[in-house]
Please model this.
Amino acid sequence: MTPEALLAHWQGHRRVTRRVIEAFPEDKLFTFSIGGMRPFGVLALEILTMGAPMVRGVVNGTWENNSSRDALPKDGLLKQWDAATEEIDRLWKEIPAERFGETLTAFGQFTDKTYNLLLYVIDNEIHHRGQGYVYLRALDITPPAFYDRS
Amino acid sequence: MTPEALLAHWQGHRRVTRRVIEAFPEDKLFTFSIGGMRPFGVLALEILTMGAPMVRGVVNGTWENNSSRDALPKDGLLKQWDAATEEIDRLWKEIPAERFGETLTAFGQFTDKTYNLLLYVIDNEIHHRGQGYVYLRALDITPPAFYDRS
Model:
């Protein structure tokens, strides 16, 4: 799997997650939850603190992911999402090919090969997005198709 | 990422999914659901029909995944899970290295590079397992840690 293929795979998933954010009613995004879990808006902010910040760290060794988890309007969340999409695309080209197999410590605490760190970020997004699907179904809203990455 | 690393990644996820199955009370595994979704036992059976059957197809071109989705006791489901774990480990060694980059049509309908087909199976498992986490929380049961793949 090439770096370009991994990026395409991730951005495909990120398009689905963006549609899940869009599918939430404005007044449910940061309020609705099940079983004491976090609302989907908070999960989306967590995903945002792991995505572009991970790529930034892989590129230049700067680790920072302490941005706000406070509620914000859906439009503002989508704007952050789109900014992260562009940043990930832009920074990805700066990752030296050999970096993917090197061992890094991300955010001062997660030590693993770079490709495993990136897979963790993608898997965490899929995991929390799956939770968002249940929230949407519980709200009687049909979630976007899981298999459609366009 | 080597074939061995991809297998280790997948089997790590499969250990988490096994713990999610184990965490369900016997009488909720095939009955409890939210928002009209499928119970977790049915999702686990879907995951089983995609895992070992995918690897079987990749190895020998035989595509079959029409096994039962009928409810069964948790112990029986875990036995199927463990049998799939062994089969995946065994068959994985038979996949020629070049096969991962080749394009296949899985189950007569999904055409993609082999590594993408395998990632789809893994992602689908993470996605549905995330739904199982919500079911468990709704049942007031603490799910296993997402990050612990041991």
Notes: The mean pLDDT of chain B is 96. The longest helix of chain B spans residues 114-138.
